[in-house]
Design goal:
Blueprint lengths: L2 H16 L17 H4 L17 E3 L8 E5 L4 E5 L4 E3 L9 E8 L2 E9 L11 H8 L5 E9 L2 E9 L11 E9 L2 E9 L6 H10 L1 E2 L2
Length: 212
């Protein structure tokens, strides 16, 4: 997808959301699309690969009623997720594994993977964007965003998957990195309907906290 077409897609999504059109159907325990327009802002402002002054969006989100909570013993964090999702825990010894959350949202079977980027750390004068671009400089992303949700700073990319990924091949990954307990974590959602899934990602990120 070229840059012009992608911008047009974003503008169309914002227009439909603001006009009240219910183009993003919700099914089961899917999240609402009320914040889609808020999610798709500041695109042009962060296109420059050398821009360290990326505007920081700040969002406060409430965990939806009825969501479940999971504490990951291998990584020491707690996260909330839709109660209809299945959870496959990470290995309980050391780092290197990931936890998978899989279920239906907005009529699509999606999965989210959460874990630690082992051996990767953020310097005091380094941004999350710099960490990710240094870690994976070959990644070709269609969109990037830096935001803060419930006090957690996140760098996000929307990445097209050339050959699909997983048992139910998906076209896009919504990649996120954040720092917790001095380590760099990732949360990645795989989907073929990315505009239906941004809010789910934000809500799960906003629920993350250090386990007590």
């Amino acid at each position: 997808m070229n840059k012009t077409v992608f911008k047009q897609t974003i503008l169309l999504a914002i227009f439909l959301s603001l006009s009240g059109c219910n183009m993003l159907k919700q099914q089961g325990q899917s999240v609402s699309d009320s914040n889609v327009a808020d999610t798709l802002v500041e695109v042009d402002a962060i296109q420059s690969p050398t821009n360290k002054g990326i505007p920081l969006e700040t969002t406060q989100l409430v965990v939806p009623e009825g969501w479940a909570e999971y504490t990951e013993p291998a990584y020491g964090y707690t996260i909330s997720y839709p109660s209809n999702f299945e959870v496959t825990p990470a290995p309980t010894q050391g780092h290197g594994g990931l936890t998978r959350y899989r279920g239906e949202n907005s009529g699509e079977d999606v999965w989210i993977e959460v874990g630690v980027h082992q051996g990767i750390y953020k310097k005091d004068d380094e941004s999350l964007r710099e960490v990710e671009l240094s870690r994976s400089p070959e990644t070709e992303f269609e969109y990037e965003r830096l935001f803060e949700v419930n006090g957690l700073a996140v760098y996000q990319q929307l990445v097209g998957l050339r050959s699909g990924y997983g048992p139910d091949p998906k076209t896009h990954g919504i990649y996120n990195i954040f720092e917790l307990n001095g380590e760099i974590y990732f949360l990645e959602l795989y989907t073929s309907q990315p505009f239906d899934q941004f809010e789910l990602v934000s809500q799960m990120l906003g629920s993350i906290k250090v386990a007590e």
